[in-house]
Amino acid sequence: MAKISKNRKAALEKADLTKEYSLTDAASVVKDITFTKFDASVDIDVRLGVDPRKADQMVRGIVTLPHGTGKEVRVLALVTPDKEQEAKDAGADFVGLDDYIQKIEKGWTDVDVIITMPAVMAKVGRLGRVLGPRNLMPNPKSGTVTQDVAKAVKEVKAGKIDFKVDKTGIIHTSVGKVSFTPEQIAANAAEVIATLNRLKPSSAKGTYIKSITLSSTMSPAVIVDKNATI
Questions:
Q1: Contact 212, 224 (CB under 8 A)
Q2: What b/e readout covers 121-141, taking b as 16+ CB neighbours within 10 angstroms?
Q3: pLDDT in tens, 180-221
Q4: CA–CA separation, 189 vs 175, rounded Å?
Q5: Strands 160-164 and 75-78
Q6: Measured in whole angstroms, how far is the alpha carbon of residue 112 from the centre of its chain?
Q7: Which stretches within the chain are classed as H helix?
């Protein structure tokens, strides 16, 4: 029989992990059962009734969390010289083009989001083998290939995230930090769920949202009552 860790034992003493909670109550429980010494991320996992292998059931989208992610997002803007100041003023951490393309080709990927322009995608496109596996490749669908670079940078800095269903049919994304209030975590999670409902593929049959859980970086998962959030 597997040995239960000290932290999991403490979590089991504080909460019933078989019970379904409202979003706010689930957020409170996650805060109570997180024992890390750092400000852990709070994540939501939503299991969808879709088949990601079918193109018409691929669920992908963007959402701006009302209370942000709580993370310092490092943004690289790959832009032409006339757009550099605009990107800097909007808060981009790194701004340039050819010099950063060369750095990335050599393996540098010390950023969280890359924003670029349609006019330079021919140059950026060749970085796919480096950026693709790290989920850093700019994409018009996620708003990271745009002429309005300043707006894109500001939105990302303010808490805009993109998500995509994985091959097992699960959406996994961060909705804040343990230091957030339960209400802030719940509001962010509710925004993700509402966005997922709007993105429901017309070809998806049966139950669309099958299950929802909240957890922190090192906590057990807390079950959310999906019927109370829809």
A1: yes
A2: eeebeebeebbeeeebbbeee
A3: 999 999 999 999 999 999 999 999 889 999 999 999 988 899
A4: 6
A5: unpaired
A6: 11
A7: 6-14, 23-32, 81-90, 98-105, 121-124, 128-131, 149-158, 182-198
